[in-house]
Amino acid sequence: MKKIGKQINAPLVANMIEGGATPLSSAEKLSKMGFNIVLYPLSVLYANTFATMNILQELKKTGNTSKYKDKVVNFDQFNDLVELPKFRKMEKKYEKSKR
Description:
It is a single chain. With 99 residues, this protein is mainly α. It folds into two domains: 2-39, no CATH class; 43-98, no CATH class. 56% of the residues lie in helices and 6% in strands. Strand 1 (13-15), helix 2 and strand 2 (37-39) form a beta-alpha-beta unit. The N and C termini lie far apart (64 Å).
């Protein structure tokens, strides 16, 4: 990686994949090596898969997910994240226009 960064005079991309061939490095370190773009394309997917596997194992084992209550977003946080109030407002607006 250091050689590539020094020897190639072009925009360089580093693709960081946990468990991949390239050793994981920080964006700051890679930038110093000459990489302009640093991608972590699977990190969130891997984290989501890990969380999914854990919560489903707990559900199978105990029949509920209460152990994870403090490790997940709550109902209101999720609704805010997906901007549910905005869509509810749109529903009302377009519902009225149908009449």
